[in-house]
Design brief:
Helices cover 4% and strands 43% of the residues. It is built from one helix and eight strands.
Length: 105
Amino acid sequence: MFNKLSNGAPLTIHCKSRDDDLGKHVLGAGQSYSFQFRVNIFGSTLFFCGASWQGGQIKFEIYNTDRDDYGRCNEYCQWEARDYAIVGFKEGESKSYDISLPWHH
């Protein structure tokens, strides 16, 4: 997750799965946060996050095996917090996102 919010706004993110709570992290302008995991033997791995900043908040699935394990992000998933939404990119594509989740105000 990259903080690409304007005006130096901090981003707070808290990610977890059913088994692992990765804790809360505050990202300054231009900072990033990452984590690693292995898909479980059942193929049902799910990580979700809550993200917030002065412009809104959102809860979303940052990794879902059904969506992400078949060519979308086999090794690496890239997400960015932008002023209008959280956006996600297919692996190897850093210019055009395929997921856009608008902030809730």
